[in-house]
Amino acid sequence: MIEINIDNWERKAQYNFFKDFDDPFMGTTSNIECSQMYMKAKESNESFFIHYMHKALQVINEIPEFRLRILGEKVVQYPIINGTTTVFKHDKTFNFCYFKYIKNFNDFYIQTTNAIELAQKNELLVSKPMQDLIHVSVIPWRSFTSIKHPRIFKDSDSIPKLVFGKVFKTEEKYFMPVSVDAHHALMDGYHVSEFFNKFEVLLSEKQY
Hints:
Keywords: Transferase. It comes from Labilibaculum antarcticum. With 208 residues, the protein is α+β, with helices and mostly antiparallel strands. The protein has one domain: Chloramphenicol acetyltransferase-like domain (Chloramphenicol Acetyltransferase, 2-Layer Sandwich). The chain contains five helices and ten strands; from the N terminus they run E-H-E-H-H-E-E-E-E-H-E-E-E-E-H. It has helices at residues 12-18, 35-43, 48-62, 105-121, 189-203, and strands at 2-3, 25-33, 68-71, 74-77, 82-88, 94-99, 133-139, 161-165, 168-170, 173-183. The strands form two sheets. Strands 2, 5, 6, 7, 8, 9 and 10 form a seven-stranded mixed beta sheet that branches. The protein has a three-stranded antiparallel beta sheet with strand order 1-4-3, with no helix packed on it. The chain starts with a strand and ends in a 5-residue tail after the last helix. The model has no long low-confidence stretch (mean pLDDT 93).
């Protein structure tokens, strides 16, 4: 990782303004068209979640602001951001699942499938204090228009949080609600919109 020189940083004014807010996170929800990828995953009987999670991590790693974290008085940028998600268990509780971002989709699919299965079998709620990742939750039972996260207010809480909801159909197209919560000292609505736009393009590519 590299340390950002805050004094010479183009976001110095915005960073100093928002960094000491009691709740510096901003939240945005958008319905993302996912028709091509959703139908492809269903036809191939593969996990739609793993398909779109791979693309979400691809976009996150392409946008530098999503790789920024606040560590104490420093701002650092990680070279690669990996994933963690909540995994629903058979007893209707959940566990945390950790997986690495791998550019090759087939390799990503295999390792993420194995990670999910391991998390489902683990009786302990395993939480790892890492910063080079993105926090992800999935609510496949309902679509939503907004969401609020529980949060421990401390300096190290600067990890963006994503939530994916239930796919719904409108006028022969499939959409999925996606929520992004991000630390406003590190990024703005422009960067969150950039994520949504790039993510939607990848989910709609004709290769799917």
